[in-house]
Amino acid sequence: MSVSEKYYPAEPTAPVVKTTTIPGPESAKGIKSLGEVFDSRPVYFIADYEKSLGNYIADVDGNVYLDVYAQIASIALGYNNPALIEAAKSPEMIRALVERPAIGNFPGKDLEGIIKNVLKGAPKGQNNVWNGLSGADANELAFKAAFMYYQSKQRGYDTAFSAQENETVMKNQSPGSPDLAVLSFKRAFHGRLFASGSVTASKPVHKLDFPAFKWPKAEYPSYKYPLAENAEYNAAEDARCLKIVEELITSWHIPVAALIIEPVQSEGGDNHGSAAFFQGLRDITLKHNVVYIIDEVQTGLGATGKLWAHEHFNITPSPDLVTFSKKFQSAGYWFHDPKFVPNQSYRQFNTWCGDPAHMIIAGALVKEIQENDLVAKAAEVGDYLYGKLAELAVKYPQHIQKLRGQGKATFIAWDLESADKRNALLYKMKQNGVNVGGCADVSVRLRPTLTFEKKHADIFVSILDKVLSDF
């Protein structure tokens, strides 16, 4: 029995499309009504989650779509997963939701066990976690941790703050509020808050009209595909980008305390980096005393055929901080150096210090993924799907360009010849019963669940072939 059959014996065997337009009439009415209390302009359709199951999402018009977007890459096991439903019914979940404890001051007796279950999902080389509320929050918390760590190394971890530091920080002035920077990369996406917005550079709409830190942005490699046929060019591209990183760190007008990077730049176009590039960044950050942060918000929890995408690179020594959210359902950052715990309490702190309810779900997810070997199964399905798409790329070279993600499970993307064509493809796929997403201007990205199997891949490829044949 396959894992999808185990979880979802009644899962649909194919999409069902009942309306000629997406959104259908009931969704259109719902979107208009919802717009009176919520900004519904980005809504694709009104989902019916009670009728959604496994890898299929239903809408209120009775359409049932094969979902290869999975709530913007944030559903790990599929809709109405029975194991997660059981976790949601637990006494620990009731307490977490009803009491919503301020765990920094008043942790419940069950918190230690909840956190230990979360830690079972830690990346290699990481053995501690600090929890947050969202992906952007995770990155902002990581920046705080990095800045405090960086300054403590300058001052001495156990050295008391000076009177001048205590006085100037209340005026947002140095040295209490030091002038420090985080280096990020062009085309990156790390969130929509203030510090996370300052390191985001994928689309203007993500950050227009609010103030930003004037921090440096390096260049993320732009590879030629297929990779095997362009190894020499791509190695030179790695070297070019690494040189830019080091030049920025050594020449920026204020110290660069941290560097943040995605293993695959997701919102920015599914841009991949190599093991050599990511190890090169590690070498540079060690050389210049820069905290190395890997943003695994979208790439984490098995989506690329490793539990965490940066594990493909075997980075040595391990990154300093690894942020997470989305498929993990919780949020925060992993770390291993105990000195990333600030030298005084209440420095990395807020009312809730994370969300125990979602930490419970995260622990349940890790249990299911590990017990069912879902990461290895996703890698196998991804190889199968990539092979099928490579065949379509030969058949439709103008519509499947720069196919990428080989060896990265179902974390697959490709480009179309224009933004209009990409957007038309996304819509045509919905009209044919497939919910799929885009990124950057011309890219299609696949983000299915870990229970997505070869039978689902065959349906997806068959529908894509049909749509492209009429393009």
From TrEMBL:
- Return the GO cellular component terms, semicolon-separated: mitochondrion
Enzyme superclass (EC): transferase
The protein's matches in SUPFAM superfamilies, at most eight in alphabetical order, are given as: PLP-dependent transferases
Q: Which CDD domains match?
A: OAT_like (cd00610)
Q: Key word DNA repair present in the record?
A: no
Name used for this protein in its record: 4-aminobutyrate aminotransferase
Q: Which cofactor does it need?
A: pyridoxal 5'-phosphate
Entry EC no(s) = 2.6.1.19
InterPro entries in alphabetical order? 4NH2But_aminotransferase_euk (IPR004631), Aminotrans_3 (IPR005814), Aminotrans_3_PPA_site (IPR049704), PyrdxlP-dep_Trfase (IPR015424), PyrdxlP-dep_Trfase_major (IPR015421), PyrdxlP-dep_Trfase_small (IPR015422)
- Identify the PANTHER family for this entry: 4-AMINOBUTYRATE AMINOTRANSFERASE, MITOCHONDRIAL (PTHR43206:SF1), AMINOTRANSFERASE (PTHR43206)
Q: Give GO MF terms, alphabetically.
A: 4-aminobutyrate:2-oxoglutarate transaminase activity; pyridoxal phosphate binding
Which controlled-vocabulary keywords does the entry list? Aminotransferase, Pyridoxal phosphate, Transferase
Q: Which domain of life is it from?
A: Eukaryota
Q: Which Gene3D superfamilies match?
A: Aspartate Aminotransferase, domain 1, Type I PLP-dependent aspartate aminotransferase-like (Major domain)
Which is a GO BP term held by this UniProt record? Answer: gamma-aminobutyric acid catabolic process
- What organism is the protein native to? Wickerhamomyces pijperi
